[in-house]
Amino acid sequence: MAPHKSFHVTTFGCQMNEHDSERMKGMLESLGYREAPERAAADLILFNTCSIREKADERFIAHLHEAKHLKRADPTRVIGVGGCWAQSLKDEVFARFPFVDVAFGPGQVHRLAEFLTSDSLSAQGYFEFEGFTGHLPAKRAREFQGWMQISVGCNLRCSYCIVPSTRGREVSRPIDELVAEAEKSAAEGVYELTLLGQNVNSYGRDLRPQPSSFSELLRRLDSIEGLGRIRYTSPHPKDMREDVIRCHAELESLCPHIHLPLQAGSSRVLKEMRRTYDRARYMDRVALIREHVPDVSLTTDIIVGFPGETEAEFRETLEVADEVGFDSAFTFIYSPRRGTEAATFEDRFVPHEVQVERMERLVEVVQRRARERAQRFVGRTVDVLVEGTSRTDPSRLRGRTPHNKVVNFEGLAGPGEVVPVVVTKATSQTLLGEERLLARAG
Ligand code: SF4
């Protein structure tokens, strides 16, 4: 036990990392640690890292050097590095950063407890792929919002992606275990549950003796008392099948928002990316989704300047972004990741200034279409789950609609409440509104 010892966790990257950090904190508190308000006040300094892009590494290493100075000031401090960057380097972490005491991959968070309760003095690395952090207790950032890891790893091999090498092959958690965890979360006050996996809609195929499916899981979670909203990320267009789409049309708690990564509009570039679908298949999925859920919020991921992408092929990305009219999009400039296939396409790298120029044109199209799409909410009363005060105007509240639209509004509600808000204005990013107070007065 470590009475009175404190920890601090810095999280980089995706929602799966946010989930893993909540589990790391829950586990440490169960070991008697308490969370320190800042890194300099902690006995145990932890980083949960991302390795999706070069920039992510550079940003993290700057933080790691600050920890190095803190350890020099107090050598009893323990420094630990978890997540995809640690997994991608394995024991090289200690060779390059000898002041690090423990390093562990995304599936090895539980081994941190072993290290902390052992009297090991030497640096320890844990990099096997087995293990679900979802088994560990969670310290949630907000009591009314929870993550649930339904699977780890990915069986696909997108040529630009490092995830399969840092998170391993796809392994689904048993469906009864997930339903039990969701029931427990709901009993603990979670109203909005987000399901996490690298490729959620291929969930359950690997389960034995009885395979399951993502739609079966969604239907079982929908019947849980107290779970008002279910979200998920990230699905893959190749596995976006009608049974899942029908769930959006039929299930009360499943939110009308689908994040469907496009990555590129050109079928030739999609092939080079090994995305396993082409433009026609993607557009066909969009059409089927809108047929069943006309008012759905569709968001996406797009990579600009993939090696070999021509001006004409980039224009195809602009065409798809314009035609679909996404409610929002995460847009990235391609950067080579060490150890990925696409990183070997040096002879076809697109010059950075061309990538930047294309990114500006794409953002213009995405924002214009998102603004146009958002106008459909003006004048409507939407249910908003209040998350806190607005980041831009502390006199206003901030929350999210079932469509995953951020709303900044005037009102009296508190975090965790779901209130009716009349939308008065819509930008490409957020909605503005006023809480309909009549109900409250009643
Ligand atoms: S689907 Fe592709 S991009 Fe997504 S995690 Fe798997 S390999 Fe990476």
Account of the 3D structure:
The mean pLDDT is 93. The relative contact order is 0.08. Among the domains are: 121 residues, 3-Layer(aba) Sandwich (Rossmann fold), CATH 3.40.50; 116 residues, 2-Layer Sandwich (Transcription Regulator spoIIAA); 64 residues, OB fold (Dihydrolipoamide Acetyltransferase, E2P), CATH 2.40.50. It is globular and about 60 Å long. The protein is built from 14 helices and 19 strands. By secondary structure, the protein is α/β, with parallel strands linked by helices. The longest helix has 23 residues. The strands form 5 sheets. It has a 6-stranded parallel sheet with strand order 2-1-3-4-5-6, sandwiched between helices. The site of iron/sulfur cluster has 10 residues, from helix 6.
CATH topology of the domain at 6-126: Rossmann fold
Number of strands: 19
Q: Mean pLDDT, as a whole number?
A: 93
- Radius of gyration, whole Å: 22 Å
- Indicate the CATH architecture of the domain at 6-126: 3-Layer(aba) Sandwich
Largest sheet: 6 strands, parallel
Percent helix range: 25-40%
Counting DSSP H or I runs of 4 or more residues, the number of helices is 14
CATH class of the domain at 6-126: Alpha Beta
CATH homology superfamily name of the domain at 6-126: Methylthiotransferase, N-terminal domain
